[in-house]
């Protein structure tokens, strides 16, 4: 259900704020999958509660997983986000079931291999645009691993996995150039396949290397043997241990807040920034420094300071594509031109992000040009207007950044930001109250 437009607030002066962020979507959804496959109970501490993670929990519950909420963990009531822990106990997976993947890449790519481990039919569908996101390679790969899938010949959602309760597994070749999640999905369920899996990628480079590293690290953390070499991942069959996951703050969702320090010449600190992380958002330290920010890790978290003006950026964002919308918004406000490359795969994200960013930033008077694999951005004075968001949470975040400096940015359907950050507009307002 679309929400009324949101007038993105202009910053009255330099922000000076500490912004505590909810948990990582990518870690939460991996932890939920591994919890559903674990041989022991699991507690997921400080998970993200958002549309994508609630859809993942819902999908696993539909398959028989027992996922409870520990409401004792809800802290103080001061946070606009829900922050209950999740607890699971081992359960047999079973169909028949219907799964709504929404627009969540993690749900549509991580659930089908798990569905194949459930006895019974599992029908999977999602939002209208979900039917256009790349799924063909994982359908083909699962079939090669012995899974029966009826996709009506579409190679896309919706489709039905005819689960038998067991998957042979073994070697498989896949073209994962469209999304790293096609590989992560196979790896996460593979400890429960009879022969595990050996996934070999063949095709143009796989994006999002940090997310693949996250998959490997989280599997190993649960006692699963994983070997990797260039474009090859091997997961041995074996038990998935239970225990506790403590979810890190979502560093990709830090982008717009840290960016606000740059735009307003202020200071933003994000507490609990991990020292050692596989999250792609950690690249913000380097990217924002290259645009002229002063970036300082410290005991209070990561602090970014801006000095007023800031420069453009020439960067290959292939590994950290999900940062693009906010980086593009910053680039549109910078003192010099930017070139963002390596991100052709963003055409298969929540929307065609390259087209969406060109259309919407140019609609405010900007000068953004689409490249075969990215964007060229030449800053120009911008004016207000309606900024469409295409059911893409990161388009809301990008619009908020533009609105800091441009009066009259009216964001269409801001509620779509709840895909990964419900309560965003409240958090944004409290950061701006410090200006
Ligand atoms: O595995 C994950 O959690 C993700 C992988 C990336 O997908 P792509 O490789 O499709 O870009 C990223 O953009 C997405 O937001 C989350
Ligand atoms: C690409 C993204 O999401 P998804 O997990 O749906 O692919 C994203 O969050 O930027």
CATH topology of the largest domain: UDP-n-acetylglucosamine1-carboxyvinyl-transferase, Chain
From the alpha carbons, calculate the radius of gyration and give it in angstroms.
21 Å
Which ligands are bound?
shikimate-3-phosphate, phosphoenolpyruvate
Q: Structural class of the secondary structure composition?
A: alpha/beta
Helix content: 25-40%
Number of helices, counting only DSSP H or I runs of 4 residues or more: 12
Major sheet strand order: 2-15-17-16
Number of domains: 2
Kindly report how far apart the N and C termini lie.
33 Å
CATH C-level class of the largest domain: Alpha Beta
Mean residue pLDDT: 96
Classify the beta-strand content into a percent band: 15-25%
The outline comes out as globular
Tell me the CATH superfamily of the largest domain: Enolpyruvate transferase domain
Describe this structure in words.
The protein has 435 residues and is α/β, with parallel strands linked by helices. The protein folds into two domains: 6-21 and 251-432, Enolpyruvate transferase domain (UDP-n-acetylglucosamine1-carboxyvinyl-transferase, Chain); 25-233, Alpha-beta prism (UDP-n-acetylglucosamine1-carboxyvinyl-transferase, Chain), CATH 3.65.10.10. The chain is 29% helix and 23% strand. The chain has twelve helices and 23 strands. The chain has helices spanning 25-37, 51-62, 105-115, 136-144, 181-189, 209-221, 255-264, 284-290, 324-333, 353-363, 393-405, 424-432, and strands at 6-7, 16-18, 42-45, 66-70, 85-89, 97-100, 119-125, 148-150, 159-164, 170-174, 197-201, 226-229, 232-235, 243-246, 267-270, 294-298, 301-305, 314-316, 338-341, 367-371, 374-378, 385-387, 409-411. The strands form six sheets. A four-stranded mixed beta sheet has the order 2-15-17-16, with helices on one face. Helix 9 links the parallel strand 18 (314-316) and strand 19 (338-341). The chain is globular and about 60 Å long. Mean pLDDT is 96; it is low at 73-78. The chain binds shikimate-3-phosphate and phosphoenolpyruvate (PEP). The site of shikimate-3-phosphate has 13 residues, from helix 3 and helix 5.
